[in-house]
Amino acid sequence: MREYPTIEACIGNTPLVRLQRMQGQTSNTVLLKLEGNNPAGSVKDRPALSMIVRAEERGEIKPGDTLIEATSGNTGIALAMAAAIRGYRLLLIMPSHMSDERKQAMSAYGAVLIEVTQEEGMEGARDLAMAMQARGEGKVLDQFANADNPLAHMRTTGPEIWQQTGGTVTHFVSSMGTTGTIMGCSAYLKEKNPEIEIIGLQPEDGSSIPGIRRWPKAYLPSIFDAARVDRVMDISQAESEQNMRRLAAEEGIFCGVSSGGSVTAALRLSEELENAVIVAIICDRGDRYLSTGVFAAD
Predict the structure, then answer these.
(1) Is 74 annotated as a binding-site member?
(2) Is 258 annotated as contributing to ligand binding?
(3) 194 touches 61 (CB < 8 A)
C-alpha cells in the first residue's frame, strides 16, 4: 500500500523568492524566505513541532498530557496545530490585544485561550505560564529558553537558505522575538561561511510590532547569544507597516508587520552594499492581521 505524508511532513522547505520592484536599480539581490507557506502559516511551525517531538523523545511528555505556553500569536497557532497533530491538550496565555484572527485560529485547532491584559503583556503571560506549571496544571515548553527552538532552524531553515542560494548568501536578516530563528540560522550559516553577516531587528522606542521585541533584561530569552548577531537594527512601526503594504501591492507578497520590518532592514542594507545576496525572513501571512486595520488605506 502506498504511503502518504501527514500534515507535519509539510512543515519547512518554504520558497525563497526575489524582490522584483521595491529594491530599485541595484547590484544586490534581495531574497525573501516565505515562511507563511508553512501549514499553520508562520515560521513558528518549525520550532513548535520540534519542541514537542524532542520532548517526547526525552520522555518528558506523552500524548494526552497538557501543555502550556505564553505567546503573542504565531507560536500559539503553530503549537495548537502541532498539539492537534500529536494529541495534546494545549493552554495558551496571551495578551488580550492580539488580533482576533490569531485567537480564532488557536481556538480552531482546539487550544484553550487564557488572556492577560495589554499592560501585563508578554512578561505577564510568561509569569502566569510558569506559575501554572508550578501548580501542576501542565508542562511549559518555554520557547524563550528551549534549545529545541533554535535547533529547528539550525536543522532546517539555515540549510534550506544555504541550498536555495547555492551558498552565495552574504547577509541574513531576521526579526528578534524569541530569537530562535536568528540563533539557529546564525549557528548553521556561520558554520558554512563565517563571513555571512547576521542582522537582527528590534522595534525602535515607542514602536509596537507584533513578533519583534525589545525585551527588559530580566525577560531576555535565555536562548539568545548576542555574539551570534553581527548587527542590530532598530525598525519603526510606521516603516514596517508601510513596507508590509508595499509588499502586497507591489510584489504580491501578503505578509505581516514584522515581515515589513525585515524588508525595511534588507532595503537599508541594500543601499549600503554592492553585489550582496541578502536573505530576509517573511515570518507569516497578512491575513491574520486584517482585523487590526493595518491594510486599510491611509
Answers:
(1) yes
(2) yes
(3) no
pLDDT in tens, 113-122: 999 998 998 8
Which residue range is the domain that position 100 belongs to? 44-140
The per-residue pLDDT string of the chain (298 residues; one tens digit each, 9 = 90 and over) reads 899 999 999 999 999 999 999 998 999 999 999 999 999 999 999 999 999 999 999 999 999 999 999 987 899 999 999 999 999 999 999 988 877 888 899 999 999 999 999 899 888 999 999 999 999 999 999 998 999 999 999 999 999 999 999 999 999 999 998 999 999 999 999 999 999 999 999 999 888 887 788 887 888 889 999 999 999 999 999 999 999 999 999 999 999 999 999 999 999 999 999 999 999 999 999 998 898 888 986 5
Active site residue 50: no
What number of other Cβ atoms are within 10 A of residue 234's Cβ?
A: 13
Within a domain: 82? yes
Picking from 140, 172, 191, the residue at the C-terminal end of a domain is 140
- Closest C-alpha to 239, from 205, 214, 213, 265: 265
Question: Which of 207, 258, 262, 270 is an active site residue?
Answer: 258
Residues 6+ away with beta carbon under 8 Å from 144 = 126, 178, 219, 221, 222, 223
* CATH number of the domain to which 215 belongs: 3.40.50.1100
pTM here is 0.93
CA atoms within 13 A on the CB side of 18: 11
The verdict on whether 258 is a catalytic residue reads yes
Burial class of residue 49 in the structure, from the number of CB atoms within 10 Å of its CB (0-12 exposed, 13-18 middle, 19+ buried)? buried
Was 180 annotated as part of a binding site? yes
Which of 33, 42, 44, 240 is an active site residue?
Answer: 44
